[in-house]
Every structure is written in structure tokens, then in C-alpha cells.
Amino acid sequence: MIVDHLVVLAPGLLGASVARAARARGLARRITLWARRPEVRAALREQPWCDAVAETPELAVHGADLVVLAAPVERIIELAALVGPHLAAGAVLTDVGSVKGELCRQVAAALPPGPVFIGAHPMAGGAHTGWEHGTTNLFEKRVCFVTPPEGAPTPAVDKVAAFWRGTGAEVVPVSPAEHDRIVAHISHLPQALATALAGFLAQHPGDWRHLAGNGLRDTTRIAASDATMWIEIFQQNRTEVVRALDGCLAEIQALRDNIAAKDWEDVRARLVAGKVWRDGFRP
Amino acid sequence: MIVDHLVVLAPGLLGASVARAARARGLARRITLWARRPEVRAALREQPWCDAVAETPELAVHGADLVVLAAPVERIIELAALVGPHLAAGAVLTDVGSVKGELCRQVAAALPPGPVFIGAHPMAGGAHTGWEHGTTNLFEKRVCFVTPPEGAPTPAVDKVAAFWRGTGAEVVPVSPAEHDRIVAHISHLPQALATALAGFLAQHPGDWRHLAGNGLRDTTRIAASDATMWIEIFQQNRTEVVRALDGCLAEIQALRDNIAAKDWEDVRARLVAGKVWRDGFRP
User: Fold this and answer.
1) Which range of residues forms the domain containing residue B231?
2) Between A and B, how many CB-CB pairs are < 8 A?
3) Please, what's the b/e burial string for B96-135 (b: 16 or more CB within 10 A of its CB; e: otherwise)?
4) Which residues on neighbouring strands pair with residue B78, listed in sequence order?
């Protein structure tokens, strides 16, 4: 399925990679972008993966059949409200945000009848943010959640799923609520643990970190992630993150208690359960 | 400083790498090994980094001036007791064990007057254990703790430090107690957290792990470590591990409470503190 007119609003690393993948893989006949800053708009005009750059989001979506809202989570809703009245009735919107439940509800409420929002969350990123770092293959073989709300029209869901599949991603359809529960466990919980471990070790002599092997290096790697992005994610997914943290805290406490009580049979069972689970990862 | 007669008892990955590094870097004039299993002794006889293979540990240490006890932690003490009476008065012993306080006390108590034990802990390893996987450069640029007990004779400490430095390691001298406190934080705590996180996620749908990005992959990598080795480490360093877990649990709980209470200023401070610490790692 080829999109006639793809519009990417507020491209950063992910949005620019969407446009570049669409051009490289022939997913869209025409690609229009809009960026908030004039100097970014000027730079985008020079890009071969960009057919037109609009001065405003409202102008950008004129005649769009697929709009990608690539802004940070809290700016997506106002952007949807802004462009809503300018969208054709058959237009479909998607996004790249890390949290979905609250967002999908609010974007749907912000849109007039007609256009449909089907959220998406590609599990891709890189050490560098910013549209200049976009690549054609950022989504290749990466999971992309597609999160239709209950009762979403099938053609719109299919269109969004097909588009993301076209970028090379492995599309995983789940409800917005289930998405938030899953990522709270597999993404937000590891981030919280890495942050807490790094913050705890920061209270000890600084040269300790240079004495560590690769274990500490790996377990704390994501503690270096961008704080502003994570504040937003924790805000948006607070309930599920707190629930996942409570479950994991109980697990850590139980391991601690069994080490303290010298219950080595239990400690062994926990070490083995963790190993079996981790060994089940794809290589 | 060149060792005249180096003896490595019960070589696994680390012990074999000690012998290979010593041969490759000319650290010893003569290298004798002993292994418990006859078929390993037969295989060792074929190795160019092995001048002699003894039938018993007692025979192996005859005329040794540096003995490396490469056995697992709980076998080191009995090995020291066994070879003690057969050591020359000037002989120096070292080891490769992950925990030091209790071990250093017990080995010292197991030895007759004369020979001196200066513990060591090279922060090196690999996915594969077993002497066949030993390499000449396993210790290169890796930290190696050298842990002299209080009042240890300087020549013995210098000899052990110089030997480990000779293998390419960066020697870090600390007391046995301080060693155990440091590794409880930088090695045993990350292992416990990775095990608990993996064990917690193992209670959720198994396909979730395939939806995760590299963050979860990194934070749980060491959960796949050998359970038997970790039981021993937790047993040997129980008090310090429990203390480190208590401190880290308080930190995780505080982050959780502040997310729950929407105290985003505090959450931001914690994210930033973790990032600053992690950014301070050597590349």
C-alpha cells in the first residue's frame, strides 16, 4: 500500500527517519514536513527525502492521507487539535510516542469527526536525537507497537500497520492500555532501576565505577538517557510504572531476605529462574 | 621481577590464563600445574605454557616461590591447608577469588608460619569457563584487586602486585574488607538486581522479552550468569551484599514514591544524578 501524501510534523530523530524510510522504500508518493523552528524548515528544504516544507502545521496537512505526529508526547495533543479542522475526512494520523493510553484518548477527543488517530510506538532510537541523525533503516527489524483504540475502523488500522511494516518494523498490535502495561515492565522499569542503581552508587566514592567489570557497565547504561524524555514518560505512564516498580521491589526484597536468612535453596531457585528467562532472549 | 617457579593449582579459565600470560610475558622461569581430574592433567601436559604437571598439589608446590590458588572460593581453604606444610618459608600465595575478607582470614589460619597469602581478585572472565578457554591477554587492562591483610610483609605484597601487573592488569590495592564492600556495590548488587528483574519479568508473558529494546537486554544480561558461582559469592559476602541491597532498595523505593506522588522535581534530580554518574564512566 503506497501513501499518496505523507506528512511528518515536528520531525526529530524518529520523524526524520520515518520520512527517509518512506522515500528510500517508496512508501509515499509525496512527503511534506513541518518543523517549528524556521532554520530547521530551511535545512529540511535541502533534503532529498522532503518534497515540500510548510510554514505551518495547518498548511502542511492539506490533502494529507497519512500524518505522523512526531512531536514529544505532551505537544502531540495540541498539534492534533491545531491540524484537526484542516484534515480531510479520510485522513489517518499516527505518532511515535512512548506512552499510549492517555494520549490516544486525548488525541481522539481533540480531533473533529472524520480523521482517525491510530497511535504507534516504534522501539527504536539512538544515542543522538535530532532530525539530522535520522536514517532510512532506523526501524528495520525493530518492534513497532500499533495501538488502535476499541472500535477503531479496520481500514485505518490496516493503513497504519502497513505503513510501519513498510519501514521495516515488526508491527505488534495491542490496545493502548496493554501497550502501557507492557512498556512499563520492559522499558520503564529497567530505566527506573538503572537510574536508582546509578543514583545509589553516586553516593559512594567516584572511582569505584572505574573498578567495575562489564556487568555494572551494562546494567547502568540506560541511566545516561535524557532526563527530560524520561520525566515525560513517567508522568504519562505513572500508574503502570508504579505498579511495575512495586512488583519488582517485592522481588528484590525477597531475594535480599533470603540471602540474609541464608535460604540458599530459594536464592538458587531465583538465580536459575532469572537465568532461564534471560537465556530465552533471541541472540 | 621474574618468578623462578610459578605453580598454578586447579586452573580454570582464570588459572590457565595466569599460566598463559606468565609464559607469553616471561613472568616465570618455570611453570608447574596441578588439576584434580587425571584427564585434565593429561591435557595440560601437552600445553606449551606448562613445564610440568604434578600428580598432587603437595608435589606441585615443591620449590615454588609463587603459588596461585585458582580453585573455587570454598575449595581454596582446604587446598591451602593441604599444601601449607610443603611450602618453603619464603613462598607467597595468591588466588583469583571474587570475595576476600573471610577467605583471607581462613587461608592465613590454614597456613603454617612462613608462607604468606596475599589475596587477589582479577575483574576478568568470559562467557565460557574452563581452562581450555584461557588466553594470554585475559587480564590486560582489567582491574585486579590485591588485598593484603593488615601487617602483611611488604616484599610479599610487592611480589604479588608486580606479578599481576605483569599479566597486564591494573592493580588496585585495598584491604580484604574494603574489597568486599566495593564489589558488593559494583558487582554483587548489579547481579542481584538483574536476577530479581529477570525473575519478576519471568512471571509475565514470555513473548514480552521479544518486544523489548536494548535497554532491557543490557540491564538483564548478567542474569544469565552461572547460578552456582553466584550462590558461593552471596554466601561469602552475605553481610555486605545485604547492606548494599538495603541501600539500593531505599533508593528505588524513594524514586517509586516520588513518581507516585508526582514530585517531578525530585524525579528529575534523581534522573540527572544517575546520568551524571553514568556519563562519568570511561568510554
Assistant:
1) 179-279
2) 283
3) bbbbbbbbbebbbebbeeebbbbbbbbbbbeeeeebeebe
4) none
pLDDT value for B129: 82
Task: With beta carbons less than 8 A apart as the criterion, state whether A154 and B184 touch.
Answer: no
State the total domains in chain B: 2
The residues near B105 (Cβ < 8 Å, ≥ 6 apart) are B149, B176
Please state the rounded mean pLDDT for residues B14-41: 98
Q: Where does residue A270 rank: exposed (0-12), middle (13-18), buried (19+ CB within 10 A)?
A: buried
Q: What is the pLDDT of residue B67?
A: 98
**Residue whose C-alpha cell is 541491597:** B245
What single DSSP character describes residue A281? S
Do both B229 and B154 map to the same domain? no
What single string gives the DSSP state of each residue in B202-217? TTS-GGGGGG--HHHH
Average pLDDT of span A182-207: 96
Is residue A155 within 8 A of residue A183, CB to CB? The reply is no
* Same domain, yes or no: B96 and B197: no
Domain harbouring B127, CATH code = 3.40.50.720
The three cell numbers locating residue A87: 484534515
CA distance A258 to chain B (A): 10
* B200, B225, B242: residue with CB nearest A248: B200
Question: What is the side-by-side strand order in the sheet with B170-173?
Answer: B119-122, B143-147, B170-173
Q: Are A169 and A142 in contact (CB under 8 A)?
A: yes
**Does position B127 have pLDDT exceeding 70, yes or no?**
no
B 179-208 near A (Cβ less than 8 A): 182, 185-187, 189-204, 206, 208
Q: Does B110 touch chain A (CB under 8 A)?
A: no
Do residues A188 and A97 both lie within one domain? no
Rounded CA gap, A132 and A12, in Å?
A: 8
Q: Give the span between the Cα atoms of B274 and A222, in whole angstroms.
A: 9
Radius of gyration in angstroms for the set of CA atoms belonging to chain B, rounded to a whole number: 21
CB A31 within 8 A of CB A19: yes
pLDDT tens digits for range B130-156: 999 999 999 999 999 999 999 999 999
Q: How far apart are CA B32 and CA B54, in angstroms?
A: 7
Among A128-132, A207-211, B147-151, the range with the most confident prediction by mean pLDDT is: B147-151
